[in-house]
Write a structure and sequence with these properties.
The chain is of the alpha/beta class. The protein has four domains: 148 residues, DNA polymerase beta, N-terminal domain-like (DNA polymerase, domain 1), CATH 1.10.150; 90 residues, Beta Polymerase, domain 2 (2-Layer Sandwich), CATH 3.30.460; 58 residues, Beta Polymerase, domain 3 (2-Layer Sandwich), CATH 3.30.210; 197 residues, TIM Barrel. It contains 22 helices and 18 strands. Strands 11, 12, 13, 14, 15, 16, 17 and 18 form an eight-stranded mixed beta sheet that branches. Strands 2-4-7-6-5 form a five-stranded mixed beta sheet, with helices on both faces. Strand 5 and strand 6 form a beta hairpin. The chain is globular. The termini are far apart. It binds one DNA strand through helix 2, helix 4, helix 7, helix 9 and helix 14.
Amino acid sequence: MPSNAEAAEIFQSIADLLDVLGEKFKPDAYRRAARSIESLTEDLGAIAGRNELRSVPGVGDAIEEKIREYLATGHITYYDKLQQQIPAGVVELLKIPGLGPKTARRFWIELGVEGPAELTAALDAGRLDGVKGFGPKKVAQIRAAVEAFRANANAGARMPIQDAYPIAMALVRGLRQGARAEQVEVAGSFRRGRETVGDLDILVTSVEPERAFDVFSALPQVQEVRLRGGTKETVLLRNGLQVDLRVVEPASFGAALVYFTGSKDHNVQIRSLAKDRGLRVNEYGVTRGEERLAGRTEEDVYRSLGLAWVPPEIREARGEIEAAARGPLPRLVDTPDLRGDLHVHLPADAGPVEVDRLAAAAKAQHLAYLGVVTHGVDAVGDAFELPAAVRTRLAELSTPSLRLARVWEGDGGASAPPVDAAWEIVRPSARHRAPPSATRPNHRIALVAHGPADPADATAWLAFAHSAGAAVEVGPGPERLDSNGARRAREAHVLLGVPTGVGTAEDDPTGPIGLRFARRAGAVPSDVRNSAAQPPFSGASKRGRS
DNA sequence: GCCGTTTTCGGCCCGACTGTTTTCAGTCG
């Protein structure tokens, strides 16, 4: 079955193949098309059906035709022909760090090397010695890279952002403490809140760049320093993640932040807009000839280009720059907007002390209500219930300014919540993957938490949430929607439930990443159920006690 | 191959770093 992901993959591969052939601009064109196809929230087939493929950024006559061929036949003749022309192993060579299309092509044409294994053999046989452009250091570097590549097939794989989050926070703390760094920010796709990150880009200002690099290299997470210059250092962490540290002048921090936050397409669009206006943008600032216009803050940089500031989460060249040129962008939902949390768990062995701690955390975050899961049906269908002492303590601590509601979480199957549940959370389980067929009249379903398993499932659950008047939960992890899902929810006029992370550990990604996903979907406060001052079914818990 | 409130042709982001160079090419982000 054709899929957007597969189509994007094919165009990506075409770009790689054209790279090896030495094509100058086509590879970028195919990559741009691949990136925008990957980020679509709708099937290519549906877009093609409406005859709107050309509205996808980067898709012109030629690529539209290839998409149509792919949708009709499942393959692209142009791609098949390229594959016949170039051995698959030569494209594999491109995945080896430090080895690009020019080198791969030379190995193939001049040495007959058709893949990583043959490259190792050529190195062992000394066939690179004396080849023009390959001195002893280069040969050693290539040998190390190809060996590392062949030993670890997972190298270069992207990491889920929620896994990268605690690592990034630890690195930031380490830099703040030791490096006398004034401003520290993690940029790149991490800052944009992409679901996965390929590496981390950390930006700091420091009066002592050398010291920042020294401190960074010595952090316990760092395995090896890959390169180090005057302004940047690249290290490999023990868990395989690559991290770039860049030290910039305070006067350039904003420009560097824009530049290294990306996305690539956003930057390209910004630069070409600047060029149209006779300006020049780089990571040091915005200039007109010799005159320096901006650079210290992101707001300055965007303003100097005649643009409103663009939140990092939507810097994807999907129309945000045009919108920012027209005026201020809608204010995306942010932490202070979250007035409550619909879905909070306590540990199974929690006691009154944990409830006290949770209430204190909720007050610190100025939350007005929490839905604490006290009973329900777990993923394998067994009923569970928190100890009576916990439920009693929740009732004792619940006040008009902080409502602590006891909620029921189940899978929409036969088990139903008792009347003392303030509201119900429904999610799929192994037994009940599909949503309940109809809204059950006496239930108070406030939130749907569901896995992304299958787009068809997601559609069904969104429809269910809509008919039940329930929100859907966004955030990292298997039972929440990612940002693409959140965008689909918005398009389906379903409110989002955004986790606050209340009561979780310092480096827990649930709250911060959940918020980023919602923002990435373009959510404003009114798109978020728990930005309302009142909890759902606010009269219900009293009724339940009678 | 894509794209256009200067263009339907002629551009296409731009700088850091490395290694092998005698002034630059390749890679990366």
